[in-house]
Amino acid sequence: MAKYIIEENNTTKYEKNYKFPLINIIPAVVWAIPIHQKLSPMIGKGGAYGVAIAFVILYMMLSFIHIVALAPAVGGVIILTALFWAPVDHLGSLAVRIILKGLILLIAIMIELGVFANATLPWLQEKTNKPRIRRVEE
């Protein structure tokens, strides 16, 4: 009769970094500005401020939730790229401008990929870290 041995995995658990996703507060505030501008004539300044603050809080909370963190990551790449491309537009050389814009885009993508990975890795590790079952013949 065969015996079965259950072996636990000895991998260390990934600890989520709660400071790194706070970089998304910049895109959250920038995305909240048009929301405030559109809602201000309809519901007044106080209500528009409340909705904008709620949007910023929701945007930041989504940066910490697995899989859903992709939405703030894409929005963050758009805003961070736009924010840092503006000063590059004032450079004289076209070649330097293109190279710097590509570098800025790459850095923004890597930052937001890090935020997405930070939110998703603990969940993914929990899903894939199954115990190994071995069959031993007697």
Keywords:
138 residues; mainly alpha; 7% strand; elongated
Summarize the structure.
This protein has three helices and two strands; from the N terminus they run βαααβ.
Low-confidence stretches: none
Order of helices and strands: EHHHE
User: Which overall shape is indicated by the principal axes computed on the Cα atoms?
Assistant: elongated
Give Rg in angstroms: 23 Å
Report the strand count. 2
Mean pLDDT: 87
Structural class: mainly alpha
Could you describe the 3D structure shown?
The chain has helices at residues 25-62, 70-88, 94-128; strands at 3-7, 132-136. By secondary structure, it is mainly alpha-helical. Strands 1-2 form a two-stranded antiparallel ribbon. The relative contact order is 0.21.
List the helices and strands and how they pair.
Blueprint: E1 3-7, H1 25-62, H2 70-88, H3 94-128, E2 132-136
Antiparallel strand pairs: 1-2
